[in-house]
Amino acid sequence: MKSFQIAVCIGIAVCCYSASQAQGFLKKMKEKAESVANKVVDKKVDDAVNEKTGGNNNSGNNNGSPNSGPGGGNAPKYGKPSNKGGQGLVNTAPDVKENLNSAETAFKGTSYGEARYNIQQAMLGVELQIGQNILKSLPKTVAGINVDTAQDQVTSTGWGWAGLTIQRVYVTGEKQFTLTIANNALWMQAVNMYLANGGYQQSTGGQQNWKQTKVKGYRAVIEYNESSGYKLSIPLGQTSLLMFEGINFASEQEMMSAANQIDIDGIKTSLGEK
Amino acid sequence: MKKIYFILIASFTFITVSAQQDFAKHLGEARTAYAAGKLDDSRFAMQQALQELDILIGKEVIKVLPTKMLDENARIERDNVTGASGFFGVLIHREYGIDVKKLPADSIYSKTVSLEIISNSPLIGTLNALLSLPFMGNNPDQKIIKVSGYKALVQKVSGDDEKKEFELQLPLTNALVTLKAPGHTQDELIKMANTLPIGEIAKLIQ
Predict the structure, then answer these.
(1) Scanning every residue of chain B, which has its alpha carbon at the shortest distance from the alpha carbon of A123?
(2) Full DSSP string of chain A
(3) How far B64 CA lies from chain A's nearest CA (Å)?
């Protein structure tokens, strides 16, 4: 009797296993069939489209449409072809000496507008050099995060209110430290006055996300945002602002020690700030 | 009267020559500082040179402005060129008509026509965008006209139906020409604007 019960149990177990196996097998079969069917349909559609547009191997397209251009076999029927490459622009900063000479010549010829343009170009050249010099002076790693020189940026607008902007990014994995310097912007005076004032504190629901602090003796403001991380703003002199942004930094202390690795005095001197 | 004109012309010439000398001085400073690697000092000297140039350009613009608009004579003693280049812009100012102080005490409206040109101001760009909007100029108090081929906005700035006051604004890339003519009709204002050598002004300030 006991052996009969064991046999029945084994039989039931085998049946269940077989059923589940069969279901898995059927599912795989279905997926395979769908995949094959899709491939066939896709191929048919591609063939039909190529036949209509003269793309791929068809050479009958001589109507001068965008598709007939080099590499235009798979390009859309309408619209311009997409760029497939090129060497880009040659990195050329305005020649300061040459522009100053041109400005002088234009000025002597009473072409004041031309002289103005040349002076502006010379200013752009000098500002770009200031930016590059500062980037060179920055460390290769900060808080164990490596520099990504491909993201180095020096931007000069030539307008007094926007001025010169320098940016350096350090990134390793998910951790990022960004340094931004805004210089010679007239509106910075107001920002600096506000930030260096020291008369503002913020606390919401017991969580302080904005507070005054000091970095290497400079008054600063540190902020924290759940999605963007830490931000440290340091006004420098009359018209410059140094800003550090830290993503995925563990604590305020870690952010502060990263900021302390930057030679703020050196940056200030390079910018001509007192 | 002749003496006054002579003094004005002499002082104008003196200021222009002085500005030219200052430009040369700042240019020299920029060169020296750049050669010595003092980039920020060089940049500062260039900014100063730029400022001098803007003042000179402003004075050149004043020279090409008409000396009379309709029946209103220019009051050249009130000509002025001032401002901060690259920020608010350089302001070129000229007035036409009767001196407000000489008007009768019971006069409600000033007849002084004022022309202001703000050059090299990055803040001006927005007006250009406004002028290109199709819904602008769809009412009698605001319309878009053309002066020497340039689009301009004429709008009522104050006054009731009988005594409206209009002004004309004409943007030139980073410059703005504003003509105000209180006590004059919209048509008179447009006539006055058409006496301005906009093409020449544009050439000088751009």
Answers:
(1) B43
(2) -HHHHHHHHHHHHHHHHHHHHHHHHHHHHHHHHHHHHHHHHHHHHHHHHHHHHT-TT-----S--GGGSTT-TTS-SSSPPPP------------HHHHHHHHHHHHHTT-HHHHHHHHHHHHHHHHHHHHHHHHHHS-SEETTEEB-GGG-EEEE-S-TTT-EEEEEEEEETTEEEEEEEEES-TTHHHHHHHHTT----EEETTEEEEEEEEETTEEEEEEEETTTEEEEEEEETTTEEEEEEEES-S-HHHHHHHHTTS-HHHHHHHTT--
(3) 15
